[in-house]
Amino acid sequence: MPLPKKLFSVLDLPVLTALLREADSTFVDVGGRGQALYPLLTVAPFARYVVAEPDPAEAVRLQEQLPREGRWRSVTVFAEAIASSSEPRQLHITAEPGMSSLLLPNAEVTGKYYLAPKFAVVWSRPSTCGA
Question: Per residue in 24-37, pLDDT tens?
């Protein structure tokens, strides 16, 4: 079900709309492949969206697509992984790209949920990190 672009104006909730506008929220998506979580899209007109996506091709796609959609107050995309320091690290690219991480997948954990194939590391590459 597609969301109305201006859900709160459609529902005519002036007090809630004013509160959301004043809140000046920012949502940070670490590993922003795809799009924002569907429930967040209802508040997109009132919030900034910051995305850290270490896959350069996906970061470019997000940078081009998200502002065009016009849902968010503003959009910022960083083509970096998020870490506690800015030292270069290895980014482990998995069979399912959305599962890639600076951390090596724990096979004992992923195997319990039959997710091991998605977490199989297909290659690793150096990555810049935003601290």
Answer: 899 999 888 888 88
pTM of the model: 0.72
CA separation for the pair 5, 27 (Å, rounded): 18
Residue 100: name the closest of 68, 65, 42, 52 by CA. Answer: 52
**Containing domain of residue 39, as a range?**
1-79
Question: Looking at the structure, do residues 69 and 93 belong to the same domain, yes or no?
Answer: no
Q: How far apart are CA 120 and CA 109, in angstroms?
A: 13
Same domain, 66 and 33: yes
Please count the other Cβ atoms lying within 10 Å of the Cβ belonging to residue 96. Answer: 14
DSSP 81-101: EE-SS-S-EEEEEESSGGG-B
